[in-house]
Amino acid sequence: MARGAVPLPPEVVHGLLARLDDGDTSREVLKPLTKHFLGALALKAPGRSVEVRVPPYAAVQCIEGARHTRGTPPAVVETDAETWIALARGRLLWSDASVQASGERSDLSSLLPLA
């Protein structure tokens, strides 16, 4: 799991989500929520076969399978923070999201939502 991509206490998450729902898309809201939900994904589906990237905030490796040690992993998923948070919350379906996904196991729809 990426350093810092760990789930936050529920009261912190609720406060940040309330700010997001009120239209606050500042770095102070998006960065911790992005890391929170990436951490939750890594806990739900541990492994190193898929790298989920949400630039510029964080990336995690998850899902069991072929392990890689250098270079690009066998599967990569990349999206922006607002899309990632909406997917994790169940407010956006994987099939409707603007996500770049390549490689085996890069379809995360069975793992979402996280919240």
Write the layout of secondary structure elements.
Blueprint: H1 10-21, H2 27-44, E1 50-54, E2 58-62, E3 75-78, H3 81-89, E4 100-102
Parallel strand pairs: 1-3
Antiparallel strand pairs: 1-2, 3-4
Structure description:
The chain has a single domain (10-110), classed as Nonspecific Lipid-transfer Protein, Chain A, CATH 3.30.1050.40. The protein starts with 9 loop residues before the first helix and ends in a 13-residue tail after the last strand. By secondary structure, it is of the alpha+beta class. It is built from 3 helices and 4 strands. Helix content is 34%, strand content 15%. The model has no long low-confidence stretch (mean pLDDT 91). The radius of gyration is 13 Å and the shape is globular. Helix 1 (10-21) packs across helix 2 (27-44) and helix 2 packs across helix 3.
**Terminal-residue CA separation:** 19 Å
Mean pLDDT across every amino acid position: 91
The secondary structure category is: alpha+beta
**In CATH, what is the class?**
Alpha Beta
Q: What is the β-strand count?
A: 4
The value of Rg in angstroms is 13 Å
Helix segment tally: 3
User: Strand sequence of the main sheet, in spatial order?
Assistant: 2-1-3-4
- Mind telling me which CATH architecture this is? 2-Layer Sandwich
Element string (H = helix, E = strand):
HHEEEHE
Helix content: 25-40%
- The overall number of domains is 1
What portion of residues belong to β-strands? 5-15%
Q: Could you list the spans in which at least 5 consecutive residues all have pLDDT below 50?
A: none
In one word, what is the shape?
globular
CATH topology: Nonspecific Lipid-transfer Protein, Chain A
